[in-house]
Specification:
With about 80 residues, the protein is α+β, with helices and mostly antiparallel strands. It has one domain: RRM (RNA recognition motif) domain (Alpha-Beta Plaits, 2-Layer Sandwich). The protein has 2 helices and 6 strands; from the N terminus they run E-H-E-E-H-E-E-E. The strands form 2 sheets. A 4-stranded antiparallel beta sheet has the order 2-3-1-6, covered by helices on one side.
Length: about 80
Amino acid sequence: MKIIALNLPRDLSEDELAKLFKEHGAVDSCDLVMDTNTGISKGFGFIEMPVAEEAEAAIAALHGTKINKSKIRVKPSTQN
């Protein structure tokens, strides 16, 4: 299942993002979207979790939580 995480702190690394989701199950991939001009995160990323139940548990657990001072939003991605 592909998940999108929004409103992430700009200094959060892909490894840190993957670690958050790995607490809830297996993660196939984790990609932050970066600004091509500055190389800085745009504040959102995509996470692939192979087991739908684990992905749903991660969404339920992480949506609305705070990382640093940012309240993140986590939901299923509509992008394939």
